[in-house]
Design goal:
CATH topology of the largest domain: Rossmann fold
Keywords: Aminoacyl-tRNA synthetase, ATP-binding, Ligase, Nucleotide-binding, Protein biosynthesis
Order of helices and strands: EHEHHEHHHHHEHHHHHEHHHHH
Catalytic activity: tRNA(Trp) + L-tryptophan + ATP = L-tryptophyl-tRNA(Trp) + AMP + diphosphate + H(+)
Number of helices: 18
CATH superfamily of the largest domain: HUPs
Largest sheet: 3 strands, parallel
Radius of gyration: 25 Å
GO cellular component, one term: cytosol
Bound molecules: adenosine-5'-triphosphate, magnesium ion
Structural class: mainly alpha
CATH class of the largest domain: Alpha Beta
Number of strands: 5
InterPro entries: aa-tRNA-synth_I_CS (IPR001412), aa-tRNA-synth_Ic (IPR002305), Rossmann-like_a/b/a_fold (IPR014729), Trp-tRNA-ligase (IPR002306), Trp-tRNA_synthetase (IPR050203)
Strand order of the largest sheet: 1-2-3
Family: Belongs to the class-I aminoacyl-tRNA synthetase family.
Strand content: 5-15%
Length: 404
């Protein structure tokens, strides 16, 4: 049995529901590319999640999955640094989902804030389905299956991560209570040796009696460092810190990325459903045309009317793509009517084109070598399944389902 270092393990996924745009790149993928070098990363193309809203028409699903894999690779995710896989190729996600569904109160799902919102957003589709209601729980299974401690998300996803933590806590509370838990936990403490058991006991006491959360963190760090301790004992001691029982499924933490939401061509949030996105696969001509068509500060009706970058949808793109010098030039030129909007857009067009070019070249290489892409996803799924199976052994055992 492998010891899982939850605090170093990252899981994140993306729905293959269409083309990827530069908002995904700057908001999510660049961060993943960075994380893959310092964490044990699992990145999952969550095709079952795409079905929660797009179950009626699956004609493009496999194309979207393939494109997503190619775009991820083209943007710099590497199979030698991260595990890249397709959710449905690891059926263990479904097993954990069904087990968690037994203990998840309906009211928890109904009060997830995005539930009502997205139903309204996707009007015209019948989302009164079991799958759509349950998707946060499927997300919980996706994360808990890998005992991932860190989930990089946008701030809008905080409620989802809280939900995952609630589900994990409920699972541990219900099934972490093995017979004789306290006796076993006390025995495990004695196995730590004189110094460490004394330390553990005093930290546990500080947390339980004074609610000292720093002591809790220190105790967790202590357990993490200990080498000669079985996974079972580690789970017991983690659980014993907070009372309860064994910690079978660790609670994940959200990790927020620093990059803000990228606005789209119309100044609203860039999103494929708002038809306001620059896509990673847009040609140089498409990029030029899209940016040229962008509306600018409405105050600049005539070339000589001064403007204010803060009111202009082009400005956030400049801030992301242009050098400080160019930004100063824009700020100066716009507010003094020294430059026109067409002029202002030109360096931006070039930077976006330049930024996309290497990504597109790499994507084209993968397009020509689809077997390589399939191979990467297949070995990713294998690696993911190994980890998933380990967790399910623990989960089944906790439920008394380790039949022999
Ligand atoms: P849809 O229109 O179907 O909602 P979308 O383009 O908004 O699609 P999502 O599938 O909702 O994309 O989002 C996938 C991931 O990309 C999420 O983690 C989300 O936070 C992030 N993301 C989406 N749009 C942006 C954006 N404009 N800027 C930064 N991050 C974004
Ligand atoms: Mg969206």
């Amino acid at each position: 049995m492998n010891l899982v270092d939850s605090e170093r393990r990252v899981l994140s996924g993306m729905r293959p529901s269409g083309q990827m745009h530069i908002g995904h790149y700057h908001g999510v993928l660049k961060n993943w590319v960075k994380l893959q070098h310092s964490y044990d990363c699992f990145f999952c193309i969550v095709d079952w999640h795409a079905l929660t809203t797009d179950y009626e028409d699956v004609s493009l699903l496999s194309k979207h999955v393939q494109d997503m894999a190619i775009d991820w690779l083209a943007c710099g995710l590497s199979p030698s640094s991260a595990t890249l896989f397709i959710q449905s190729q690891v059926p263990e996600h479904a097993e954990l989902h069904v087990l968690l569904s037994m203990l998840c109160p309906l009211s928890w799902l109904e009060r997830v804030p995005s539930y009502k919102e997205s139903q309204e957003q996707h009007q015209g589709r019948d989302l009164g389905t079991y799958g759509f209601l349950g998707y946060p729980l499927l997300q919980a299974a996706d994360i808990l299956l890998y005992r991932a401690g860190i989930v990089p998300v946008g701030s809008d996803q905080l409620a989802h991560i809280e939900f995952v933590r609630d589900v994990a806590r409920r699972f541990n509370h219900l099934y972490g209570r093995e017979p004789g838990f306290e006796v076993k936990a006390e025995a495990a403490i004695r196995k730590l040796g004189k110094k460490n058991s004394k330390l553990y006991n005093s930290l546990r006491q500080a947390y339980q009696e004074q609610g000292d959360s720093e002591a809790l963190d220190t105790a967790r760090a202590l357990l993490k460092e200990l080498q000669n301790i079985t996974l079972g004992d580690k789970e017991r001691l983690l659980g014993y810190l907070e009372g309860g029982g064994k910690l079978v499924l660790p609670e994940p933490q959200a990790m927020f990325s620093e990059s803000p939401r990228l606005t789209g061509l119309d100044g609203g949030k860039m999103s494929k459903s708002h038809n306001n996105a620059i896509y990673l696969r847009d040609t140089q001509e498409q990029v030029e045309e899209k940016i040229k068509r962008m509306p600018t500060d409405p105050a600049r009706v005539h070339r000589n009317d001064p403007g204010e970058p803060a009111r202009c949808p082009v400005w956030p793109l400049h801030k992301l793509y242009s050098s400080e010098t160019t930004c100063d030039w824009v700020q100066q030129g716009c507010t003094s009517a020294g430059i026109g909007c067409v002029e202002c857009k030109q360096p931006l067009i070039e930077s976006v084109q330049q930024d996309l070019q290497p990504i597109q070249l790499r994507a084209a290489e993968y397009e020509d070598n689809l077997d390589v892409v399939r191979g990467i996803l297949a070995s990713g799924a294998e690696r993911a399944r190994d980890e998933a199976r380990d967790t399910l052994v623990e989960v089944r055992q906790a439920l008394g389902m380790n039949y022999r």
